[in-house]
Amino acid sequence: MPIRPHPDCAARALRRLLLSLLALAALGAIPAPAAAQTQDSVRPLVRRDSAAARRAEPDTTENFRVSPGRAFLHSLVLPGWGQSELGAPGRGGVYFTLEAGSLWMLLTANQRLGEAREQQRRLRETGQIAPDAKTGLVRSRENQREDWITLSIFWLFFSGADAFVAAHLQDFDVHVNAIPRPGGGTELRATVPLPR
Question: Whole-model pTM?
C-alpha cells in the first residue's frame, strides 16, 4: 500500500510559503534610507562653472533606471516586485495581494477536490455509483481548480506586463490633472514638458 502525504501537511507548507512571501513583499515596500542624501553630503564641493568639474561629477538628477526585461522577470518571480523597483510599491502590493489570494483559493479548491474525490471513492466502494463514473461534485471541483490556476497565471503575467510597460514609460514625464468646471463638468489637462 503506497504511503500518501496527509493533505494538511501540504496545506500548512503552502500557507507558510504564502505568509513568507507576504512578509518579504511588505518588507520590500518599506522605503529604504535615502542613499542619495548621504552621497550628496560627502561629495566634495567643486565649482560648477568649470568644464572639468561637470565631466567628473556624476549626474545624480537622473533616477536609477530599471530595464523593462528586468522589471518583467522580477514581477514573474514575485508579483509586484517590478512595480516596487519602479517606485510604485502600492501598485506592486495590489498585484502581490491578487496573486496571493488566487494561490490561496487554488489551495482551497485543491483541498475541496481531494475531499470530493474521497467521497467519490467511498461511493464507488459501496456500489452507489459505477466504478468508472465521476460525480458532479468532482467535476465541479476540478473546474474550480482549473479556474483558479488560470487566474493565478493571469495575474502573474499581467503583473509582469504592467512592470514591463511601466519600465518603458519611466522617463515619460506627463502630468494629467482633472479640474472641476463651474458648470458641473470636468476638464482634463495634460502637461508634457518639451526639450529646450
Answer: 0.58
**Which contiguous run of DSSP H or E holds residue 188?**
strand 186-191
Please report the pLDDT score of residue 141 as a whole number. Answer: 95
For residues 115 and 123, is the Cβ–Cβ distance under 8 A? no
Phi, psi of 132 (to 5 degrees): -105, 5
The amino acid that residue 186 corresponds to is: T
Domain spans of the chain?
A: 1-27+65-170
Residue (of 134, 102, 103) closest to 119 by Cα position: 134
Rounded CA-CA distance 18/16 in Å is 5
What pLDDT was estimated at residue 66? 84
Give yes or no for a contact between 40 and 144, defined as CB atoms under 8 angstroms apart. Answer: no
Q: What percent of the chain has pLDDT above 70?
A: 67
Sequential DSSP letters for 78-97: STTHHHHHTT-HHHHHHHHH
